[in-house]
Amino acid sequence: MSAGGTFDFPPFKWYIYPVILPSILPAIRRTAVAEDQISRVFNMRFPREAVSDPLIYNVGQMFKVVTVIRAATINDKDCLMALELRGMKTEIEKTVKYFKDHRVVVEPLDEK
Fold it and tell me: Domain residues for 76?
């Protein structure tokens, strides 16, 4: 305990890496996809007028898929996103169709 009555924690790197990181690594390496489900990663380009629409929220409500945003960037013209979809193949196909119907360019990053 320091003079001010607060606890002194070890430096960030010593506290996080040896204690927390090894304990969560197995969970990070495991996939949360069930045996009958697949995981696909897509590169998506949202037009500027669709950026404010809650499309990702909508697909999570409308279809039985889990969405994981891997990376995203927004500029003046559009939004680029690497989006992982987890679920049944038919549900993922419906989700991709939904995005395309809303003017989103969808390109698979992984071929499975």
Answer: 38-108
CATH number of the domain within which 80 lies: 3.30.70.260
Angle at 87 between CA 30 and CA 109, to 5 degrees: 80
Q: How far is CA 15 from CA 9, 24, 74, in A?
A: 8, 14, 34
**Helix%, strand%, coil% for the chain, nearest 5:** 40, 30, 30
pLDDT band at 43 (very low <50, low <70, confident <90, very high): very high
pLDDT, tens digit, for every residue of 52-95? 889 999 999 999 999 999 998 888 788 899 999 999 999 999 99
Question: For residue 40, what are the CA distances in angstroms to 43, 45, 69, 81, 111?
Answer: 10, 16, 12, 14, 8
Distance separating alpha carbons of residues 84 and 109, to the nearest angstrom: 9
What average pLDDT does the structure give for the chain? 77
Write phi, then psi, for 68 (nearest 5 degrees). -130, 115
